[in-house]
Amino acid sequence: MSLTLKPQVRVRAKISSIGMYVPPKLLRNADLEKMVATNDQWIVERTGIRERHIVEPGVATSDLATEAARDCLAKRGIEASEVEVILVATVTPDMMFPATACLVQDKLGAKGAWGFDLSAACSGFLYALQVGAKLVESGAHKKVMVIGADVMSSILDYTDRSTCILFGDGAGAVLLEPTEEGEVGLVDYQHEIDGSGACSLYMPGGGSLHPSTAETVEKKMHFVHQEGGAVFKVAVRKMAELSETLLTRNGLTAEDVDCFVPHQANKRIILATADRLGMPEERVVINIGEYGNTTAGTIPLAMHTAMNSGCLKKGDTVLLASFGGGYTVGATLLRWEL
Ligand code: UT7
Fold first, then answer.
1. What does the mean pLDDT of the chain come to?
2. How far is the CA of 29 from the centre of ligand 1 (A)?
3. Which pTM does this prediction carry?
4. Using CB atoms within 10 A of its CB, is residue 127 exposed (0-12), middle (13-18) or buried (19+)?
5. Which amino acids are annotated catalytic?
6. CATH code of the domain in which 107 resides
7. pLDDT tens, residue by residue, 272-319
8. pLDDT tens digits for 60-115?
9. Residues 168 and 124 in one domain
10. How far apart are CA 24 and CA 56, in angstroms?
11. How many domains does the chain have?
């Protein structure tokens, strides 16, 4: 006797809502000029950044993440109690543990949800997006909140001009739900990690290798350290490579992409990657000028910017690409259904 199986109906995941939050306080290039030996012209020319938002003391990643999730839920018009899973991508959790996802669950009032944090630096949001999509595609869950949130100002050395000018604080959140008739949603992804780049972009102190001591503080091991030039080259090459692989596998070229949303680390990295892909600048989302690099926050913030400015419309073919500490690389292809 054989089991009677129902015909396979592929459930797909779609982004059904998007929200964001940045703290109100601005840190402009002119403010940084008073803190380190830098100037507005250098920062704008070399990075494209004009200002970034930073938190007041006492405001943590879970606060930003919760506000972004609230915005996302309000736009969808549903209650927090309907959220089944909360995934928080971050490298600046409120604490080593509990997971920031737990703190967000409580602040949001998402009773009955489960979830966890995911650490993949600037690719964190794309990785969490795929994990969330798989939970929806498997049929296990119908409402998954995916949040990219970082308070980078908490791990920056504001005497190091090579890093402190680059980053800002912010959070973006999307809700994932199953697609409905005629919708496509998330299509495919290509991810890669390469730990040989670990020491080119990292925060050495505070983990199990170098637990916090007076010495780790004195040696500034609790701050971001980066070899900017090395990271720059790999970022362009790998984002373009994985994006190309993803497009080719799906029978697409850059011409078919309506909107390219890359990680916002440096305007020159974004433009060089787009150039390699043959993507015209008018289809590339760039909002780094206003937010700087918010690490896990950049891609949802950029999608939010693109949707509000009318660059991202229902039915658009969208390519997302990321590169970050690890190294971590990600590329995602989707159809925008909002
Ligand atoms: O999101 C995660 C991934 N991260 C990234 O993708 C970041 C990748 N790297 C970058 O975006 C760039 O490498 C930086 C923006 C970090 C640096 O830009 P760069 O064009 O690579 O500059 P550089 O490090 O080669 O420095 C050029 C010059 C140096 O002076 P000398 O040696 O030529 O006299 C630096 O000391 O610029 C100097 N410099 C600065 N000058 C004014 C470095 N930082 C600053 C500054 N203001 N803030």
1. 97
2. 15
3. 0.97
4. buried
5. 122, 263, 293
6. 3.40.47.10
7. 999 999 999 999 999 999 999 999 999 999 999 999 999 999 999 999
8. 999 999 999 999 999 999 999 999 999 999 999 999 999 999 999 999 999 999 99
9. yes
10. 9
11. 2
Domain limit, last residue, from 128, 156, 178: 178
Q: Which domain holds residue 40?
A: 13-178
Question: Ligand 1 pocket: which of 155, 162, 203 to mutate (most atoms <8 Å of CB)?
Answer: 162
Residue 114's CB is within 10 A of a number of other CB atoms, namely 13
Q: How many residues does the chain have?
A: 338
- Site to substitute for ligand 1 among 35, 43, 46, 224, most atoms within 8 A of C-beta: 46
My answer on whether 172 and 204 are in the same domain is: no
Residue 192 and residue 139 in one domain? no
Q: What is the pLDDT, as a whole number, of residue 1?
A: 47
Q: How many angstroms is it from 47 CA to the middle of ligand 1?
A: 8
- 287 with 215, same domain: the answer is yes
Whose structure tokens read 């029978």? 251
- Angstrom distance (rounded) from CA 210 to CA 221: 9
pLDDT digits (tens, 9 = 90+) for 208-247: 999 999 999 999 999 999 999 999 999 999 999 999 999 9
Tell how strand 144-151 and strand 169-178 pair up.
antiparallel
Q: Distance from the CA of 220 to the center of ligand 1, in angstroms?
A: 19
- As for ligand 1, residues whose beta carbon falls within 6 Å of it are 38, 42-43, 46-47, 122, 161-162, 165, 201, 228-229, 231-232, 235, 265-266, 269, 293, 323-324
